[in-house]
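Homework help thread (please don't just give me the answer)

Our assignment gives two proteins as sequence + structure token strings and asks us to describe the second one. The first is just a warm-up. Here they are:
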Amino acid sequence: MLSYLSLTKPFDQNKYVERFDQLYEKMAQAGFTWATLYENYEDHQYMTDSLLQVPYSMHQEIIDATRAVEDIYKKTFEMIRRNPNTIHRLGIPIMLWDLLLEDNSTRFSYFTRYDFIASQNGLKVIEANTDTPVGLVETAIAQRILAMEHQVANPHEKIDQLLKEAWEQIIKDYHMRSTDTLYITAANWHEEDKQTASYLMKHFPQQATYIPLEDIVVTKDGVFTPEGQTITYLYRLYPLEYFLNEKSDTGESIGEQFLVHVMNRKLMLFNPPAALLMQSKAIMALITEKKRDWYTRSEQEVIERYFLRTYDEQAGLFSYVKKPVLGREGGGIQIVENNAILDEDIDHYQEQAMVYQDYFPMPDQTIDTWDGPYTGKLLIGSHTLNGVPAGLFFRVGEYITGNLSMFVGYTIIK
């Protein structure tokens, strides 16, 4: 368990709530507006003002692992392109296969988050969020404010610059002109996605405009704003596969028409469609299966060190995590240890193909909350921007890390 700093030691609930309210206002003014979440008819605390103390050696190991895992994902992406028949293994809707395989993007993802478990038994990546990763606002804005409150150095001082450089690479890769507009979209009702889109837009070095997903107009001729302006470049904080279910008021499949325009390159998407290819958790099973066929000796060593064995079938495992291949926010996951179910969600994604991953326990971590000290399970997200490690995203929650797991900032100690 990592040690942590508290702004209210010894713990006093009234003082804690008072300080939290003050901190909430600072966060909201800066663009982080979901320090509390309303769900199941009550408010939940999403952010703690505790600050984890992360040893420098551990921090460096996570950064090194992030680079190594990113390289394995890049190699896997290349191998899938050379072996397109493997796409049937990934649990992706058939209607998207041609779009994903014909995507000739330079990178499969410019904005990615890898999730790691770190314990005394080592460091393991459990999945990659390559399509629509979130957590950047926490990593950039909330982390900065927490560091200021605790009067410690902010480990993420370069994240804004790295984001700008990622956008500049996109401009270069897609030959965007200075007169072109990047439209940025998210579901307007979803506060986290909307504010994340706003943060990304602020660092785009050319002209950018936010458009609510609900306002995008799709016709047979193209994709437009409500005013009739053509949308050619679009950053979408909306899962690609969700478009398959988008219908007009008259029942037309406007989502499918939208994807046709992407395939015909009338519309350029960021992250590119290939990001969904690598989002599938079945990628981990493919890496396990093809370890000796697709990868060099040094790459195999990286896989053995940082990747958990993952399979398409349960195949005699006694301790495993069962995951829907395109599940999100912990939905549909089942955790089994020694044939006993530790936790499960059966309300989401049960119709999807599943993978079975070796169970690697998350370490316990205590943080302060408005109800008092809370001990949960620690998960580490590690962002990359254009493939470059850009910041860590710590969360503490239950066995299944869902959307109510609490964000916690950190500082590096020698």
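The one we have to describe:
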Amino acid sequence: MSDEFELDDSEYREDADRAYAELLERIGEAAPQPRLNATRRAVELLGDPQRSYPIIHITGTNGKTSTSRMIESILRAYGLRTGLVTSPHLVRPNERIVIDGEPISNRAFADNWADIRPFLELVDAELADNGEEPLTYFEAFTVLAFAAFADAPVDVAVVEVGMGGEWDSTNVADGQVAVFAPIALDHTQRLGSSIQQIARTKAGIIKPVASVVSAAQVPEALAELERAADLTESTLKVEGTAFALESSTVAVGGQVISVRGIAGEYRDLFLPLYGDHQGHNAALAIAAVESFLGEGSQALVGDVLAEGLATATSPGRLQLVGTEPTVLVDAAHNPHGALALADALRTYFTFDEIAIVLGVLQDKDADGIVSALAPVASTFFVTQSGSDRAIPADRLADLVARDAPEHAVQAFESLEFAVQDARIWASQAPRRAVVVTGSITLIGDVMALAESEGWK
């Protein structure tokens, strides 16, 4: 790999930080604009960089990032130079733009930002003349990612939507393959109050004559995907019929899975991720790669697939960040994700007691998250992340005490103190663990804390 894309280029860190600071001056991700015209105009001025490589486009409610990372890892095992864009980041914004398996370097981040900034400012001026808001943080970041991939260049880009699909900024790209992770209720203020409405918005990423692969969906979501596929003359392959996770066995460091793909059978693959949901994500990723490489008609090469899955990572998803005592972080931030976390803790670990360090953002279903986690929790250490959208710790603690009255609940305004006390609690008896969850911003803060303090 060339020096240009190495993350260890600390002399350019200040340049990258300045670029990121300029991005942060724009309207934040909590208030996305339901429009495509602004992003479309920006990439048009740049010569449509998103058209210079094929794209696998992925949406859904839970599992998008893990599935995206598995797809990228398999494609890279095939020798392709890959681009990957995910959101949000955990510690540094470079994580969102991955080129050939590595976060974009500080130098490339800053240089690409400098290249596109004049064009973004031109679009800002045009929008202002029309009485519209300037390009948002996410719109600008999407343009940056597409430009960085073209500059690399990449052979294929795996692109995760930010929110929804139809009007998400990433939808200025035409995905050759459209991938749907499980669809559930989330972002209801923006996407709709029913699964049908949310699925209809997400189905907007399906482009004419695309290959569409989907996880198993509830009937109302599947109906929307079938409708969109029919209207666009696309093919739709759904988990359970066209492909399936045949088996999953707990193994040291993850699980061993067998998958019936669209075009082949794949047995005894090691997946270094915990949770049955990750096995299903892997089946979806395999179907997506089959559809991309051979339009679903050609089986993947066994040893290449095995390498791709065995080297897949998904930071912040049941990730071990401390061992003395055990501390796991998981980015579950809605009830569907919290249920998957609870199931994985029961199946893949043998803890006697678990302390949940919990922080939730204001636009999330905190009641549903607590209800999902309460059956596996021994005690709650309630806190808040550094986000201005975080539910204040005392208010969240009251909610936890109401929804899980049988559990001890402590509130901490300071995340550092919450984690410190939870670790002390876990150290007082064998087979205790700490699980930090509830929001992605909370996970990012804890991962940074673990690194700075050098947890064992």
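TA reply:
I won't write it for you, but here's a hint about the kind of observation we're looking for: The mean pLDDT is 94.
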